[in-house]
Amino acid sequence: MTASVHPVDQKLAPTLLAPLALQHVLVMYAGAVAVPLIVGRALNLAPEEVAFLISADLFACGIATLIQCFGFPGVGIRLPVMMGVTFASLGPMLSMANAPDVGLLGIFGSVIVAGLFGLLVAPFISRLLPLFPPVVTGTIILVIGLSLMRVGINWAGGGQPTMIKVVDGVPGAFPNPNYAQLPGLAVAFFVLLVILALLRWTTGFARNIAVLLGIVAGCALAGVLGMMHFDKVGQAAWVGIILPFHFGMPQFHLVPSITMCIVMIVVMIESLGMFLALGDITGRKITREALTRGLRADGLGTLIGGIFNTFPYTSFSQNVGLVGVTGVRSRWVTIAGGGILIVLGLLPKMAALVEAVPQVVLGGAGLVMFGMVAATGARILATVDFRTNANNLFVVAISVGFGMIPIVAPTFFKALPHDLHPLLESGILLAAIVSVSLNAFFNGVKSEAEASAEAAGAAAAVEHG
């Protein structure tokens, strides 16, 4: 390995690569399987069909991750990214699931349309780079971290405070009786302590896989306490083949397709923030061409998702936090993670084993990782001139306030048209829109060259700060 190789492109030894990749898979697994699980149950699919949805999702996750990280001509940002189903699509898909003339095949059709749409509009979305100076990117990344903390806290509590159950064919929300129980909180706290101890008193490889070791220790404790069960592992098949159009040929409906295209715009703007965050964390300059390749991979991954019986894909922000915690910036780690996901999709028994990891175990790790995302945003904001340009304070303050609305007041926008909810229920998107608008209002929009130079300077400051 030569000194000229950027850390993002460094190839690690297999003995290092495998545990680091598995760590990424464990971090994103719960989020990856949640959407197909909820949609499958909302559609009253048989248990074996829900299991197939989950396997298909893992398989497509792996393919999309390889496309994004390994890269092909014109596609893939070639950064350490793990791809998974976006939660922004969940609400619209549940509405489609309840529409008798749409159903699962109509969902797959709208996903395919959204994927093609994403491929077409990627170059136009990437031209927004001059709108994202450090005051904007730092604010968005800070809000990403704060938004993710809700996920990590709920993981530590054992899931969501309310559960979605299907009663008489209609999904509804019911209190989760297992939420915030003392044994689960104790396990999450134990995982957190193990990770902190490893970060404090170890170096090198052990420090790099501190999150994985914390999860393993948490699983051991959960097993002793009877909180980890392997019934599904024994019932699962060893091998399962994922074929395109398993449920039949997709159906195309105008309104669902338009709705999913709107979701795709939301996803791509969020991905823009993720890519800029990874650029800052890894020290790699993010150009407009790189953003275009990354956004195209989102579109291509979504298209593949629709073909292979699954849903829209995006870059998972929790794995961005993991990159920040471990300091391992090689994209070959997530390439290996993509390979593991493909294997899990083809080996239902192995997928069931990973699924057996309790959410409370992931919660202890999530508090560390997601806090690191917010801390990265704070470090970027530390490079912003607040002393001579007080207007930057207003950009940050108001944007963070808007970004917190969906978190602290989920029903705040309930009186607005339902079609706007995919846009308004994303705190990241709200923060992005408000910060971009306020920065343009107070500071104007710089040229692409000036914006790239400023972003590179901020990345260098963060890298050596």
TrEMBL record:
Q: Which Pfam families match?
A: Xan_ur_permease
Q: Which residues form a coiled coil?
A: none
Instruction: State one molecular function term (GO).
Output: xanthine transmembrane transporter activity
Top-rank taxon, per record: Bacteria
Q: How does it sit in the membrane?
A: Multi-pass membrane protein
Segments traversing the membrane: 12-38, 50-72, 103-124, 131-153, 179-199, 211-230, 254-278, 332-354, 360-381, 393-412, 424-442
Q: Which UniProt keywords apply?
A: Cell membrane, Membrane, Transmembrane, Transmembrane helix, Transport
Where mainly found?
Answer: membrane
Query: Cellular location of this protein?
Result: Cell membrane
Q: Any one cellular component term from GO for this entry?
A: plasma membrane
Instruction: Spell out the family assignment given in the record's similarity comment.
Output: Belongs to the nucleobase:cation symporter-2 (NCS2) (TC 2.A.40) family.
Q: What is this protein called?
A: Purine permease
